[in-house]
# Entry
Amino acid sequence: MGDCDRAGLFAARARSFPRSRHPGEQDKDHANIGASQSPAPATRVREGEIELYAGGETRQQTSALNMTEALRTFFGLRHPQGYIALLPFLSSGEAPKIVFRWIRERLESTPGLPVLVTPGPSYLHTVGQVYQGGPAKGLFLLLTASSAKDLSIPGADYSFGQLQLALAQGDFESLGRRRRPIIRLHLSCGAEQGLIELETILNNALRKRHFAAP
# Structure
């Protein structure tokens, strides 16, 4: 089973862990860890070792022609007074931070919106409440990756990597249900190689000639 299938397999379990909540959200999400499992999400676009998933209404609003067109149409959904939230569920390190800084500067330059880099899953208990319950002006770009080295959780039938992927998938689904424009880019070859590919893909998608005013 691939990591993308595991995202769906463990998505239901993610709801049993504490996460950001809108005040009106019900406790029905507090399912037991061994509860029923969500179906694996369908890939919208795949290019190289990067897979794009679109949540909620965003799936109908983004192109499936190729990755460049998918990202171009996604960024075209931006609100003129809005922002872009980059939500990386990746291991911390100096190399990813450098890439995130480049992504932030690139997104602020071309789409012309402020970019918030809020790593997961820690943001779920802080600014995640604003993302879900605040003004609907954000574009949400969630990043996940296959784990090069994963560790099993003692006493559980899943690993730390699977847990992190499930938490990411849970927030992806939650934002989609709230009609927030959201995509998830999964780096199936791992974060190190995947972020290199992502730089190239974003460069192609963010060429100024591709963008019209929101």
